[in-house]
Protein: Nucleolar complex protein 3 homolog
Amino acid sequence: MKARRNKKQVPSFRKLLKTSKVKLENKLKNKQFKQQSTIKKYRKEQRKLRQAVKDAVSKKPVPLEDPKEKQPGKRIEREEEEEEEALPLDMMDEDDLQLMKDLGQRASFLTRDISSSEPVHVKKRKHESVIDKYEKIPRTLQTAPEKELIHLLPIKDKSGIIPQTREKPVIDSNQDEEDQEEMEPEEGNEIIEKPIKELTLEEHLIERKKKLQERKMHIAALASAILSDPESNIKKLKELRSMLMEQDPDVAVTVRKLVIVSLMELFKDITPSYKIRPLTEAEKSTKIRKETQKLREFEEGLVSQYKFYLENLEQMIKDWKQRKLKKSNVVSLKAYKGLAEVAVKSLCELLVALPHFNFHNNIVVLIVPLMNDMSKLVSEMCCEAVKKLFKQDKLGQASLGVIKVISGYVKGRNYEVRPEMLKTFLCLRIKEIEVKKDTEDINKPKKFMTFKEKRKTLSRMQRKWKKAEEKLERELREAEASESTEKKLKLHTETLNIVFVTYFRILKKAQRSPLLPAVLEGLAKFAHLINVEFFDDLLVVLHSLIESGDLSYQESLHCVQTAFHILSGQGDVLNIDPMKFYTHLYKTLFKLHAGATNEGVETVLQCLDVMLTKRRKQVSQQRALAFIKRLCTLALHVLPNSSIGILATNRILMHTFPKTDLLLDNESQGSGVFLPELDEPEYCNAQNTALWELHALRRHYHPIVRRLAVHLIAGAPSEGSEALKPELSRRSAAELFEAYSMAAMTFNPPVESSNSKRKDKVLQGDSFLNEELNQLIKRHCSQVATPLPLDFTKCLETSLR
Structure:
């Protein structure tokens, strides 16, 4: 017979090639795992069998009921019945006895249900019910309480996942109660033995002062160590910053304020003059020198600590805004405001001091909403910081970032913001912008000659000189390291476009907004930079605003100023008659006085310079005469600095229009009478009046006003005894107004007190009266008044008659 062939065929070589290596490894692992699991199962079964045999041998069968509880009579009866029922061994066959012994030696005899007639290894049927299965389970008595298990995290090894458990320790409740009872009197004894010492107010203050001094010394030590060697001690910044979380309620607020200010000054001192960028993966992987590695670690530490510091300041401001009390309750709600103000002040300092460093835009985003804060102190601090930044920013990069954020914020709030936000635009350092040019007009950057060009056109010696000249020019460019004018103009142009977009939106949508004065003032300053395309529409809007009558005197003056700035620059080419703006200014002059409107004189002086002096060819003689006369009248009822500015303006107008000296003569020229109440300067007949106000100003209490009045009466000569000193003649009217300002509530120069003549004999009492009058008074006073009944009817009758 042939050997039986194995059904499993050996896989061919080609099939093995197709089978992947991973698949073969997985098959091998599965096979090993199955073998290990079968071995484990076998060992487990053997262990259970051994344990069952041990339990059967060691333990005696325990009855289900406690025999102690039963009565002795019943126990005897039960024993007798058992004896009767039990079969003696004599009556059993030898075969049966041998079978019982064999079964007793088998372990399965102990674990199997004896009542069942089925064989031991019979297989379970599929249709077997759950109740039958449960009934076949052997009953066991619970001799000890079950222990609770705590399931731990499983362990994973090559064989698989191994579950881990631990017994839960059982705590005796009675023992715990006894322990607690024992502890209570001990605690009571401790409280009685060591009572807490209550400090008086004076002792508490001394203790607080001591703690505060310790914290100050610690802050000073850390700060001095960082300043002495920033690169080595950069890690101490973290230690100092951790003091922002001071938990001692006695000194928490003061220490946090000191740490905020100390860190701010440290960052201002140790921050480099360039922006630190994150390293690329290629730069991190390259090998570098120790010095470079040390510098990199310093820069990374500085940037990270600076970032965390700014986040801490932001969180302090948010806590103050939200009135949110922390869980630690170390700082009270009232102290939040003080902390927030110090945080805002530090942010403002960093905004101005570090415009080139990292996270500057984040500081701007924090500061701009605070410019519109309800707290006046916080709002003023932020506005002043932004103004300072605009004034010192020469290139315009930082200013552009701030302007973008402010414009977006104003638009987002629907133009309901403080006017101070827009007044910061006036501090922008923009004097010229990029004008659209033809491609031919654009100057191409200078290029150096190539070697071939030099060889063709230059000799050997000339090439040598040219090479040295180009090298020197390159070195000079590198040494300057200044930004090009083109880049500066581009930034200024973009900034001004955003400013004008904001202004025009407010003029269009919010004409009755409190932002209008700031908008008109800004337009007046930057009007010469506005594109010609907007001139016509802008002038129409300005005139309609003036005619509406809703504007104050200051706003209307800004409208006039804006209109003439437009017309004096690129607007010369436009055919626009500004007579209505002259009329409005002439009418507005008498609204100024020595009270609150005195500050408006500065705007008037600027308007007059643009309207009359710079446009002298378009101004008629009648108009100039009318303005000179009204200005002299205005000089009588304003403060001395305003009178000085007005008289200086009249001096310039008399030089610009020489024929106006006829106002110094008493004789009138032409027909008509001067009409001072008429608001039309062309038709008020100013040539028929005289400047009599100068004679009143000649006796003014301020010496400079007196000097200017005498100078104008003499015809404003440039030479001679009546000529002005250079310190007065070379200054403009606006400069004189500022120089002699009375903002400090003092006269400049001091005004001499008038020496009144003292009388040797001071008249008192009756000496002021006539002798006859004195006698009459004495006679009436000496008469004794007789009491008479009052009769009102007589008086009534006389009044009716």
